[in-house]
């Protein structure tokens, strides 16, 4: 299993955790060992369900239990998964979310079903190279998102999920036809100015969609003046550079506007900004809705998203791990895979 780095170190490499291993024997037989838990390898089982799908089962789940009971298991899981102790987490809402994740993931005892995913195909005219990215999601910690391009839009699909938005859903969608030029630094210090700007673009998008539905032809591409690059804050603990003092002639979102009390002190020059929407929902994926936001491109390996309604900011950093035989055999196969993983949680 590939796990994201500990929150909020979004630029750190992925972590690797063995879940099972197979010993090939003579006469085409094999033994399977479950690697889950802390008592060493024990008896397991693997079953091929169908093409591109298999299941694992632990036959000795008592090996996953600890002498200190569920409380010791939770504290150990917390150190390994989050790099923290229970005493480090003061926010009550965050404690609730972490406990929900522990209960949800630990109940399966490594009895899981795996389905193949493809990496998105790349084209020369893509804004950046598509692929997997680690993203900051506030109290949910770091999650893995797949960025892919589909004509005039880009989509971020969750590969790992949380109690609000499950894996397979489109966490962000970017309208590449609508560039957003950030306001000057004095106006941007007021979050209302950014809100006004984005909501104006949202209304323009709504009108264009209405025109298309009324048969008035496709909406014209919008390409505002490039202007100077803007900048947005990084996330605490990341290695985003340069420092605030190094940014000249650009726009800067003042620290604390999007992430109040987070102690942000780093920024990164912004190459381009586009209008987009982000998916939010209540616990259990209840009342999902797409809300307006701003996609911010920093470089080939980093982008961000301003969640307007939440007044928060997510930073995404490319997963540098390489995966063999993960390329989609065709664009159609990749699109079909996206539909399949989304249907699992819709």
TrEMBL record:
Residues 205-239 are annotated as: Disordered. GO terms for cellular component: SCF ubiquitin ligase complex. Keywords: Ubl conjugation pathway. It holds the Pfam family Cyclin_D1_bind. One of its GO terms (biological process) is SCF-dependent proteasomal ubiquitin-dependent protein catabolic process. Coiled coil: none annotated. Pathway: Protein modification; protein ubiquitination. InterPro entries: FBXO31/39. This is F-box protein 31. It comes from Spermophilus dauricus (Daurian ground squirrel). The lineage of its organism: Eukaryota, Metazoa, Chordata, Craniata, Vertebrata.
